[in-house]
Design brief:
Layout: E1 2-13, E2 20-31, E3 35-39, H1 46-53, E4 61-66, E5 69-70, H2 76-86, E6 87-90, H3 102-112, H4 119-129, H5 144-156, E7 162-166, H6 174-189, E8 194-198, H7 202-205, E9 210-215, E10 218-224, H8 228-231
Parallel strand pairs: 3-8, 3-9, 6-7, 7-8
Antiparallel strand pairs: 1-2, 1-4, 4-5, 9-10
Bound molecules: adenosine-5'-diphosphate (2 copies).
One adenosine-5'-diphosphate is lined by residues 13-14, 20, 22, 40, 42-48.
Length: 232
Amino acid sequence: GIAAATTDLTKVYGSGDTRVVALDGVSTSFREGEFTAIMGPSGCGKSTLMHCAAGLDSPTSGTVRIGTTDLGTLDDRRLTRLRRDRIGFVFQAFNLVPTLTALENITLPLSIAGRRPDPQWLDRVVAMAGLSQRLDHRPAQLSGGQQQRVAVARALASQPAIVFGDEPTGNLDSRAGAEILGFLRDSVRELGRTVVMVTHDPVAAGYADRVLFLSDGRLVDEMSHPTADRVL
Ligand code: ADP
Ligand code: ADP
């Protein structure tokens, strides 16, 4: 099935002299169990597309569906609940709570929602993250790569239908970045998640099943089974 889809998505910032068309009629869909990378030059609209597709920002026109739900039909409360229950987020900055342990960070969104994590699922995610021996550590006691693995595990904790990453390897060296990309790919292959990742790194895009190329707010190309040297 389709995990998420955009139809004729347009986003305009500002007006008059400061008017910027960040997205200009973007239609695409993200299939369940597929890992998509979104690439393009700085300022082409990658973050805006991700933020709109994830319900973090509202488009000027066009529609976003998560599963069969049209986000435009939801009030703020329902939209917040859908994001919380069905969408995971990973950003360039790890955004962990420094006073909480790795495990507490991973389960924090669920705790806030008053939900308990599924223990079996949590075990699988923690093992896949390679964090089993680090669950009692606080962020300051972890490397950048480990902190981002906590952030990915947190994104996966609620068994979300789709995980969005905005330059998830942007703050990492290539080795730690490769671990994160392997983890994201495993979450697709072994956990059946859907992942959509914004990146400017061809190596990162090489982990995806498909790459979308944006330019000036438009989808201009698409590649299946990318490799780093073909993306360059
Ligand atoms: P990318 O992620 O590809 O670098 P963005 O989606 O961040 O691109 O930005 C696309 C365009 O929209 C850019 O010209 C950017 O300056 C503009 N833009 C993004 N966010 C805002 C905003 N909140 N207000 C005004 N302009 C914005
Ligand atoms: P990225 O590195 O992901 O492209 P940016 O540096 O373009 O991110 O943007 C970071 C944040 O600033 C985003 O939330 C974006 O919406 C906002 N932003 C980007 N460009 C502008 C702008 N021209 N005016 C106001 N906000 C902007």
